[in-house]
Amino acid sequence: MLIGLVGPAYAGKSIVKKYLQHKYGFIELLVRSTCSLAEMVHTDNSSADNPIALPHSQSSCVAGSTHLSSRTFSNISELYNYVTENWQSYCIIDDVDCISGWDVLCKRPFFLLVSIEAPMHLRWQRLLSENTTPVLDNLHVSSTHSSTNGFTLYSTMSTLQDSCQQARFERFVQHEEEVMFGLDVPAADLSSTLIDEKTSSMCALGKLDRPALYLTISKSDVRIINTARSLNDLYMLVDSTDLLNHERLRPNWDTYFMELCDLAARRSNCMKRRVGCILVNNRRVIATGYNGTPRGIRNCNDGGCQRCNSNASCGSQLDTCLCLHAEEVGWF
After folding, report:
1. What one-character-per-residue DSSP string does 303-316 give?
2. What are the UniProt keywords, alphabetically (predicted)?
């Protein structure tokens, strides 16, 4: 199994990766062309993606690097060949969309794309928990006042701090929207959107043929919304998704057939409800059907069935309904 992680900054990707490495022995796969930048964003001793800032001693069981395996490749082709030959091993890639040509992995039946997401205000709080504002560190005056033409001007530390904090948050939002939706930020304004060196590295990563993040997230097989307030809560959330269940890679027969029913239902033209069915014999599909008016009669959604189009209450006037059940269509 190969898991590819994707998601915005400070959503918890690094912690999820290290948790899977620690608990299940996942091997992290890296591509050398992006390693130097990725390491700046996700260092072993960093809590960049921690759901909540904790002392190092409390998170060392996961964040410790001495027992976490990794392999580095020169390009995506080498990585592609390795995972194909070792597909039964547990492997993981953090920020997989930062690797040029990563989507070739989607063709393999052992690849699972997992997005880790979190509300922006929580991600902002996580950023603040490990970063300080240099301009505030250099200010030592708690409050000052001066008089000009009879007017007294007050400048308090808290007011200045709130103002700087608001400006930083606006730059954070601007940068995150640029990454998420691929919005164009003028080159002259790009530096002003960066929060710190780590965020600057993320921006550099985002320029490596990286599409808008929401496009990649929309392809995810599993989406984890990390609103956890502690590491244990996040671990429980990850465990509840049952990522190692191989039916996530290849659904069982019942799931497969039910998804075919859902697909058939999308062809329904009945104004009341969508229903689909398939007829199966010895795990072979022999017929499909969906509800609606019979062949040769105008579709229900084009006015073919007066009963359905008159908004009749459930269970009433059924003797005037022209629509056939999905099972009837499947049989005939």
Report:
1. T--HHHHTTPPTTS
2. Hydrolase, Nucleotide biosynthesis
Q: Report all structural domains of the chain as residue ranges with CATH numbers, in order of start.
A: 1-34+68-131+212-249 (3.40.50.300), 253-331 (3.40.140.10)
The mean pLDDT value for 124-140 works out to 61
Report the alpha-carbon distance of residue 14 to residue 44 in Å, rounded. 9
Task: Identify whether 327 is a catalytic site residue.
Answer: yes
Per residue in 247-306, pLDDT tens? 999 999 999 999 999 999 999 999 999 999 999 999 999 999 999 999 999 999 999 999
For residue 31, list its beta bridge partners. 73
Helix axes of 13-24 and 56-63: crossing angle, nearest 10 degrees:
60
d(CA 88, CA 78): 17
| Highest mean pLDDT of the ranges 76-85, 176-185, 306-315 | 76-85
Write down the H helix ranges in 138-251. Answer: 157-181, 187-190, 197-206, 213-217, 231-240
Which H/E stretch holds residue 41? helix 32-41
Buried b (16+ CB within 10 A) or exposed e, 191-226: eebbbeebbbbbbbbbeeebebbeebbeebeeebeb
State the pTM of this model: 0.73
Strand 143-148 with 2-6, pairing: unpaired
- The catalytic residue among 130, 259, 327, 328 is 327
Angle 296-301-307 (CA atoms, 0-180°, nearest 5)? 90
Residue 211 is predicted with a pLDDT of 79
User: Taking the CB of residue 57, how many other CB atoms lie within 10 A of it?
Assistant: 7
Query: Among 19, 10, 4, which Cα is nearest to 202's?
Result: 10
Residues contacting 307, CB < 8 A, separation 6+: 317, 318, 320, 321, 322
pLDDT bin (cut points 50, 70, 90) of residue 44 is very low
What pLDDT score was predicted for residue 156?
Answer: 54
Q: Is the pLDDT of residue 72 over 50?
A: yes
Give the CA count within 13 Å in the CB-facing half-sphere of 134. Answer: 3
Burial class from Cβ neighbours inside 10 Å (0-12, 13-18, 19+) for residue 120 reads middle
